[in-house]
Specification:
Elements lengths: L5 H6 L1 H26 L14 H20 L4 H32 L14 H6 L12 H17 L7 H17 L7 H6 L4 H16 L5 H21 L1 H6 L1 H21 L6 H8 L1 H22 L5 H40 L3
């Protein structure tokens, strides 16, 4: 998940709102799986898996925000270290807080945590968000592994002067293409992250950020119109072959990078602001992303005990499950995430005080 300061949030409220929408899309995609698992009748069809595009939006938003950060920050090894420390203290504390009870549950009832996979995760790598061939303990952590990869590469870019930012992005783009042509992305989990096609989405967001600052948010409506047109093709293809597009990184990068980047640029640039409640959902998006699978699973298990034939209960329960997931995320954000952010912010200020 991307991170921005309060000042950046003030100017990029639509991006914060878009992040909330992205998290909600991911919730809907997993809601489809939960309904398939716990209900004898299904209301949602496989097109609900389109919600996984929320992950692609997250990656593009990350690239956009990183450029927004880079434009205004200092350069050098100290600035690069502080940037990476800020991202680590943003990502890990809440991730650990949600993963820890899941780890305890696994020790007690492993069948309740990994009933659908044959091999347990490497717990140390899971908590460190270190690349592995197995999924992390908290399944959605796979995206955070990619995010940390993005941040490490971008931290390296901050060592150099601002004029080298665009050439650095071009070099990164070229290295990805060459690495994939040479098959580096197939030589172990670390290289799979470094040379993943999903990195193109981060770069796409970075390009959107560069254009945003270069043109001061011009061409906003044109960007949104082009985005709407470009969304048509992946929507049609998803309706025909959902699994092929949501599970193959090359397809995701090919079909989603450009429409996501244009959407991010357009919403950041347009003067109209999305509703305030959507920005609040954006504030809760990281908590929602980390907790929603657990929330949906608990509610799905309860639903399974009382489910009835017919779709009436599906309509009511699916709505309640979405609302319940958002409620849990809001509580986690208020009671855990915000206090932890205040603590880590104070610690960072002392650690990097000039």
């Amino acid at each position: 998940m991307s991170i921005e300061t309060p000042q950046q949030r003030q100017h990029l409220g639509n991006i914060q709102a878009l992040r909330g929408i992205a998290a909600l899309l991911v919730v809907i995609s997993h809601l489809y799986i939960i309904e398939q698992k716990y209900s004898p009748d299904t209301l949602l069809n496989s097109f609900a898996s389109f919600g996984m595009v929320g992950v692609d939006l997250f990656f593009v938003i990350s690239g956009f925000i990183m450029i927004h950060v880079a434009i205004g920050c200092k350069r050098g090894l100290g600035a690069s270290t502080e940037f990476l420390f800020a991202r680590i203290t943003r990502i890990y504390p809440l991730y650990w807080l949600i993963s820890l009870p899941l780890f305890v549950l696994y020790l007690w009832r492993p069948d309740m945590v990994f009933s659908s996979v044959s091999t347990a995760p490497n717990f140390l790598k899971s908590f460190l968000l270190y690349p592995d061939t197995r999924i992390p303990l908290l399944g959605v952590g796979w995206t955070l592994i990619h995010e940390m990869g993005f941040y490490i590469v971008f931290a390296f870019a901050l060592v150099f002067k601002r004029k080298w930012l665009v050439p650095f992005m071009l070099i990164w783009f070229g290295a990805l293409i060459i690495g994939q042509q040479l098959g580096y992305d197939k030589l172990g989990p670390v290289r799979a992250i470094l040379f993943s096609p999903l990195s193109f989405e981060f770069i796409g967001g970075a390009v959107a950020g560069i254009f945003y600052h270069k043109y001061q948010g011009g061409f906003a409506r044109t960007s949104l119109i082009l985005a709407a047109i470009l969304w048509i093709l992946p929507i049609i293809l998803l309706s025909l072959s959902v699994q092929g597009m949501t599970e193959v990184p090359y397809d995701r990068a090919l079909y989603f990078t450009l429409p996501c980047a244009l959407t991010v640029y357009g919403l950041a640039s347009i003067k109209s602001k999305l509703p305030l409640y959507s920005q609040t959902l954006g504030d809760w998006s990281y908590a929602l992303y980390l907790t929603h699978v657990l929330s949906l699973t608990v509610m799905g298990r309860i639903w399974h005990k009382f489910t009835q034939d017919g779709l009436i209960d599906n309509v009511l329960v699916l709505i309640l499950m979405v609302v319940g997931s958002i409620f849990v995320a809001g509580c986690v954000h208020k009671l855990a995430e915000q206090p932890m952010l205040k603590i880590t912010k104070r610690f960072r200020a002392r650690l990097f005080a000039k």
